[in-house]
Amino acid sequence: MHFRNFSKLIVLHFTLCTLTTHAGEKFEYYNGVRSLAMGGARIAVVNDETAMLVNPAALGKLRDYFVTVADPEISFGTSSQAIIGADITAFIDPQTMLDKLTSEKGVQFHQRVSLFPSFVVQNFGIGVYGNYATNANVNLAGTEYSLDYVNDYAVVLGFNFRLFDGKVKLGFNARATNRVEISRNSTTTTIPANSTGLTIEGLAKEGFGIGSDVGLILTGPWMLLPTIAVVYRDAGDTHYNINDGLFYSTSERPLRTPSSLDVALAIFPIISNKTRVSFSLEYRDALSEDQEDIDDPMRRTHAGLEFNFSDAFFIRFGYHQRYFSTGLEISMLNYQLQFASYSEEIGTAALPVEDKRFVGKFAFRF
Known about the structure:
Layout: H1 3-17, H2 19-22, H3 33-37, H4 51-54, E1 66-70, E2 73-77, H5 80-84, H6 94-101, E3 109-115, E4 118-121, E5 124-138, E6 144-163, E7 168-182, E8 191-192, H7 200-203, E9 205-211, E10 214-219, E11 227-233, E12 260-267, E13 270-272, E14 275-283, H8 291-295, E15 301-309, E16 313-320, E17 323-332, E18 335-345, E19 354-365
Antiparallel strand pairs: 1-4, 1-19, 2-3, 2-19, 3-5, 4-5, 5-6, 6-7, 6-8, 7-9, 7-10, 10-11, 11-12, 12-14, 13-14, 14-15, 15-16, 16-17, 17-18, 18-19
């Protein structure tokens, strides 16, 4: 074996061994398939019902109403299917995941399933959001089980005000969320890999909270429609301590979600009568004081490019953190089918680690 390859293996070994305590993935309340295909860029380009979650000011872009009956979205890592096989519900059972990961030491597992039935018209929307997400691994030494699990159920309201003939859009949402959370960043940072009888009820913290995002979109009345977008998320921080939650009577509450500020620039060239382009640059959590964010600003950098052919076929490319992404969409009649391939940064500034993932979504709406 060449020395260079050997040295890479050594670095990877120590990276994965420390993954349980220094994983760098940034949890987000929602990040959909279109955004992930466009490198995570979203707040300046979103133009559908997901605006309620992404940037409520974008409700002012809608020309018609949308009733989304069903829109299941599934994301999984490249190694996830091999780990769980046909047991597609294993990711919501902590003990089952531990048992499966014990034979796949050092391999990162990711799976997320979400649903957002909703009704939106210009400047207003209401929806019900459900989300299950698991990220887990057993370190190479086989001693520590690292688990991040989040289950959200929420009712979301979105409002927008169009000013100066739509050149200025100011929106906000209100989210009532029941959260169940198992986090490696909580007081229990790791779980012994020889544990038995693990349950969500025994590990999780649950609580109910009210949160709000405020969004602003400024669009210049010129060719290319230059756009500036800003979203202040979880204004005043979101705390999940209103009550005990809906499912478990846990004694502790989930970690608060601190406020954050996302900023973006975008342009929208028109190539022909049936071909349009969207291009956006975005910087996430611009005011973060987290040392990982300060040391590695690329974790917050996103860029996306979309080609729209007759509002029926879309091709997307992006730069997500420090990795490339791509995606496709077919939208016909009342059906929408979207796919994306992207990577998430799960390492640190000193030792980046790429976790390759795929996400797909099918939607029926009218």
